[in-house]
Amino acid sequence: MLIRVLQIVREQGWFDLSQPFEKTIHFTRGPALWMRLSRQGRGGVHLKFSELTPLADEARRTQRASLDFPALAPRHLGHAVRAPLEVLASQALDFQAVGAATWLGRVHGVRLVDGVTGYFARMAQLSAARTTGQCRPEWFEALREFNASHPRAREVERELDRLAQALETLPAMAQHGDLVLNNLGLAEGGRLVVFDWEDYGRVDVPGLDLFTLQWSLEQEASSHDGLRDSAHRAARALVSVGCDALMLPEPVYRDLAVAYALVFRWLKRPYGVPIQQRVDRWIDSLLETRPSSS
Amino acid sequence: MGVPAPSYASAASRRQLLLTLALTGDERRILVIGADEPADGWLPPAWRQRTEVCTSTGWLSQREEGGFEVVILPGSLGARPQAGGGRGSSPTMQLDLVRRMLAPGGVLTGHVSRPAWRARPSLSTLAASSAGGCRRLLERAGFVDVECYHVEPRLADPMALVPAGTPAARQHFIRAVERDRPQCSLPGYLVRAALARCGGGGLMQRDLVFWARRPC
Questions:
Q1: pTM for this one?
Q2: Contact B6/A31, CB-based, under 8 Å?
Q3: Chain centroid, CA A61 distance in Å
Q4: Which stretches of chain B sit within 8 Å of chain A by CB?
Q5: What is the pLDDT of residues A188-227, one digit of tens each?
Q6: Looking at this predicted complex, what is its ipTM?
Q7: Which residue of A lies nearest to B12 if distances are taken between CA atoms?
Q8: What is the enclosing helix (H) or strand (E) of A240?
């Protein structure tokens, strides 16, 4: 398979294969693989490829993301099909991984939370400029159908009704869909970069990205004894600045917590049972803390 | 919810995929030498009809040269005794036989694992299970386009192939150590971080995948 992927890279001119280069290959639990082509461990191109699933929709989303967030998203290079193989290419960025410890400090004098706040502010700006009105309902019916078989279906149905009501008034804001610490990085100079935009715009309810990032930060903090309290405080602070940047009232954000988790559960459906189970445990804990009067 | 879409959610599916990466998919004649477990467990279903399995290189001297487009050595590089017991030939001699089984341009692929110390591995076994040793063995046996990859985290559940002995591997393992930091004790993290920064991140991985080509 790699031979055919490299043939496509050569044909499209995405990377010069005539000079020595390295291949680092990543599997996923979904239907595709990733490969980075680099030289001396730096730069190069990031390729997503699959013989199991079409990538045209993802290509469109990653291209749109690189136009909407040119400072944050890797530059989209192109998409090619040699059936059944499809390849999606974007610029590879050199970055430092982000964890709870990085979040709490400064890198090159910059706080990560400032970069993320900028992302949310830009999201709100784009939404206002596009004047698409309220959230689009197409994805909501698929979400409801998918969650109909949830073990706690009755409670889930109530939360989805809550979301349906919110969708009538909230402005449409295209979400990354998988904004977690693992998909953030710090490039040179402390610049925040965000990866894995393949679900960008699949849902447009404001607050989803803030919620998954908050959860991701708290999850990592809970496994790191020395950071737990400060990371929880940082997560709460993130919610406050994030809601400000999104112009989303905090009570509305908190009220939709379970709904956001259900949306994430739906978006993660191609990634198999272990991921599903992890998200379901999260949903259970949120439902347990939901006041019974709601 | 309907029929689940095809994916690599299972470790078994990723392990099967691992063997096919270096190939085009059009290969018709495949030879497996020295599998420790039944091939059905790890050989892609589409290959089973066109694959011959033999237990060791001992039988190869009786076979016609150049008869296969692919040879797979699942865990047997330099560590497989000859059929019928006895001292057997050196790993280089065994690989030379394997090379001659391949058609010109044919691909050798496989994997090796670093044995546990309590198994008292021979020097040749240890050498073959290191990235540098694996590469040298294959090149000495006349293979070209040799590529060795560390399997992360392990062969039974592969999530990444990292090009052994390269600057890309160093960068990858530095990031991996930082990513895994919450799961490590402080001393464990410091040791792993130092190892990764010195370019020794591959030493933390037990399994290697390799592929190479018989010259045309």
A1: 0.85
A2: yes
A3: 12
A4: 1, 5-10, 14, 17, 20-25, 147, 149, 158-163, 166-172, 175, 178-179, 181-183
A5: 877 889 999 999 999 999 999 999 999 888 887 776 666 6
A6: 0.87
A7: A29
A8: helix A228-246
